[in-house]
Amino acid sequence: MHPAYSVILFTTASGAGYGLLTWLALARLLAVLPAQPSFGVAAFGLAFLLITAGLLSSTAHLGRPERAWRAFSQWRTSWLSREGVLALASYVPASLLALGWITQGTNHAGMPLVALLTAITALMTLLSTGMIYASLRTIRQWHQPLTAPIYIALGLASGAVLLNVLVRAFHVPAAWVSWLALASLAVAGLLKWAYWRTIDGELRTYTAEAATGLGQLGKVRPLEPPHTEPNYIMREMGYRIARKHAKRLRQGVGIFLFAVPMAGCGLALLPPFGLVGAGLAGLALAVGLLIERWLFFAEAEHVVMLYYGADVA
Amino acid sequence: MTALPAATDKKLGLVIDLDTCVGCQACATSCKEWNAGGYAAPLTDQDAYGSDPHGAWLNRVHAYETGEGAESRTVNFPRSCLHCEKPDCVTVCPTGASYKRAEDGIVLVDPDTCIGCKLCSWACPYGAREYDYGHGVMKKCTLCIDRIYNDHFVPEDRIPACVRACPTGARHFGDLGDPQSAVSRLVAERGGFDLLPEFGYQPVNKYLPPRARHNAQPSAANAAAADATGMARPSAAGAAPAHAGEAGAAERLFAWIDQMLSR
Fold it and tell me: Which of A198, A215, B22, B81 is the 20 to 30 A CA-CA neighbour of A122?
């Protein structure tokens, strides 16, 4: 599948934003972070910035962005619509949570509910994003049980790494955040590794013979193309990445998304290296996340390419 | 509304005969012409005379080679929307622009409400939907809904443009939900099949498989291959010599005449 940069930016930025929002909400619920106003401004500011920039970036992918408001109507059937509705809905409790954190600073009746709703809507938005891809039967690499959980796991992991940077920057005494970031990266890493193993090892059942229904005549191969230049279908679904390139990029993901951030979070536990370690983790994560998302698209193969000469899908 | 209708009154669709299609592209061209200049929003092209011409077409005709050696054959393969009964392209649409009509089962895109997110084209395994770069919306086969119900046309023109244009009668149009209709009987008689039935989309359009060759002369090796692929063997009456190259010119001429008269 052709990797659309606006979608890559959208899913990585908003994923991190919703992850950060979820951790902030849970921290408020369990009262494990002091409600320091300046920290609140920075933390919620960053979360909202990431989410909003991500959502706006996603409209750049549309042919008619001025009609994007229509996308809220089909939540009964469409995961994309559900994502839009939930994203919008999440702004409400999240804003109230942010306001409460920044202005009041003490436990206020109703805040636990607000925090819970923030976490729930943020997580459900992450789930909806993952399900947009996981629900497509046409793309084997996406139509996996692990696709949506990995979306959530990476959102939470990137959110935790960002939270770690924030607590270090604002000298909030919360060393557990480094442990949280470490643990969530480990979980996400494990899931991603399992996912790659699954898609590499799977039997590719669709063939050109199956797609054309001409298998009883023997092996099917393209003779003349239907058109001399690539069309939309070939541009959008025909993007393929060579296995050796994909392997190199996966190693890059292993290093920049998991190894270095985990090392950075570990380093952040040692007193003089708090901000340095967290910052290193954050920078590496940004690079690694972009590579991971790009690969998610580039490694995806669509069955329609069987009509255009792909052997199997 | 992107919820699918529970059932449709009719199941209008096409039957495409892979045996008689000669790959002339008349159906593709007539479809492009009708939709570029007819009632619907035009199908745009980009860089039409330049180095990277591309545009939205609703019907594409592929050509495949099947089999090996003497048994190989060319199959021309038109590909357009199959107007499935349970298509994901309808349910994934976030705006409701993609919908299936309850009265006749035609799947359409409303070009006034489509936002061009392209998700429907990701959901379609047949590549039926193309993004129109000029218009910013998704386009697909409309089953010429602006022709089939058009009272300004004479009855014989109230069929899709592609069906009207086909010179070999390889395309048929009708109600595949009515077992007595001409198309349904044709499908039953020829063993029409669905493309990629394992997706569960229940395509309405059917493809008729190429018929077995009646003048094929299987050698021992090819006979084994033909048995393996389940193709019928031709009758021996009026058959050409097994190895035509060995016969003289007169014998070859008579064999050819015999073959032609046996068709």
Answer: A198
Q: Is B62 in Cβ contact with A225 (below 8 Å)?
A: yes
B95 CB near a chain A CB, below 8 Å? yes
Compare CB distances from A304 to B67, B115, B125 and report the shortest one's residue: B125
pLDDT tens, residue by residue, A244-255: 899 999 999 999
Q: A139 to chain B: which residues are within 8 Å by CB?
A: 122
With a cut of 90, say whether residue A200 has pLDDT above it: yes
Question: How is chain B split among helix, strand and coil, in percent rounded to 5?
Answer: 30, 20, 55
The answer to whether ipTM exceeds 0.85 is yes
| Global pTM value | 0.88
Domain contains B91? yes
Domains of chain A: 5-306 (1.20.1630.10)
* Residue B148 and residue B107 share a domain: yes
Of the candidates B176, B174, B156, B153, the residue with the CA atom closest to the CA atom of residue B165:
B156
Give the Cα separation of B186 and B173 in Å (integer): 11
Distances (CA, A) of A29 to A24, A115, B122, B196, B232: 9, 6, 40, 50, 74
Q: Per the CB < 8 Å rule, is A303 touching B125?
A: yes
* Domain membership of residue B145 as a residue range: 12-208
- Position A109 scores a pLDDT of 76
Provide the domain count of chain B: 2
Domain boundary residue among B208, B232, B248? B208
Question: Burial of A65 by CB count in 10 Å (0-12 exposed, 13-18 middle, 19+ buried)?
Answer: middle
Q: Looking at chain B, which residue has its C-alpha nearest residue A84?
A: B94
Whether residue B228 sits in one domain with residue B187: no
Q: Has residue B2 been placed in a domain?
A: no
* Chain B residues 149-188 within an 8 A CB cutoff of chain A: none
Measured between CB atoms, which of A71, A77, A231 is closest to B130?
A231
Residue B111: which of B87, B125, B129 has the closest Cα? B129
Tell me whether B84 touches chain A (CB under 8 Å). Answer: no
φ, ψ at A91 (rounded to 5°): -60, -30
Quick one: how far is CA B1 from the chain centroid?
28
B42 inside domain:
yes
What chain A residue is nearest to B207 in terms of C-alpha separation? A213
Q: How far is CA A120 from CA A19, A128, A163, in A?
A: 11, 12, 18
All residue ranges of chain B with pLDDT < 50 are 219-245
- Separation of alpha carbons A263 and A273, rounded Å: 12
Q: Is B37 on the interface with A (CB under 8 A)?
A: no
Query: Amino acid letter at B127?
Result: G
Residue B215 domain flag: no
Question: Chain A residue closest to B129 (CA)?
Answer: A233
Q: Sorting pLDDT into bands at 50, 70 and 90, what band is A204?
A: confident
Q: Torsions phi, psi of A166, nearest 5?
A: -65, -45
* CA separation for the pair B105, B4 (Å, rounded): 10
Which chain A residues are closer than 8 Å to B218 by Cβ? none
Residues B24 and B102 in one domain: yes
